[in-house]
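Possible race condition, two jobs.
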Amino acid sequence: MTRRPVDIGSPDRLYTVTGGRSRTDGASFDLVTLIVGESAPTAGMQSEHVRILELCRHPMAVVEIAAELSLPITVVRILLEDLLETGRITARHPRAARSVAALPDSALLTEVLHGLRNL
């Protein structure tokens, strides 16, 4: 199976959407970070910002926002940082993984799996 390159849109458009930025300055958004809109769009806002606020009336993951906007993740992260800095969104970051020692024993998990299969 041959993989075709993903169409990420016109480079000129992406440059314009991000204001020429290619990296975020501070906030890091994981792909599964949930974004929640905290305000309604206002007149004069960039159309991509408006669309993000409309999508995030209910919590939505960064990767879902990128898919809905048909934009690369890096571009969406830059747009989200803009909205976060102005207080228009909040980000619910995923919990940090526990240490390996705190995870359940694999033998216990195997027993649970067998029990579920027997149901």
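Job #2 (started ~2 s after job #1):
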Amino acid sequence: MNLRRALSVSAATAVLLPVAVAVAPASQAAPAAEMPSCSDIGDPYGANAFVNRSFGVPKTVTPGTDWTTYTATLSNASAKELKSFTISAEVLSYVYNEGERDLSPYSDLQYWDTSQRAWKTLRQADGDARGSVPAPKTLKPRESVHVQLRFRLHKDLPMNQTYDAFTGITGTFVDRYQGTDCTVNGVAGGGFSPVKG
């Protein structure tokens, strides 16, 4: 608990967002996709690498309304420097049954680029509201990265199903466990439900 409190203080004071958006281009490649997850190969450390927090994601969002702005923070809770560090952001809904749709194509997502003092849109070629956010290449122990984002849902979002929706960031770094390179992920964000206006 003391470590969590210390990291919360660190997260509040070590604002790295200007560095995060100025250091790397938005097209920075993520670690190789073919690498296994560290949790899949039994690394007990991987699950405890990050402390995360976010504020500003409401429980419900009405399609067709204005932007919802929020902040997501990832802090290095480990005793070592995290290398090959990258951040991605997304708006999505979990699809559990055949015939359900993801709300991501009916969403807009942007991050605040402090170096250019402008909102930058994240959109994949397939139409999903997700993408890479510039980040420092390493994150030292107790350092934090804060990302300001905003999202909205299109008014034409089909409301004939229930959506289990989420928006946030995923921090990824490459670790080495028992001679194997693997990736560790940490997520910060919040869940919400679309509701009719």
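The helical segments are 2-13, 17-23.
Logs attached separately.
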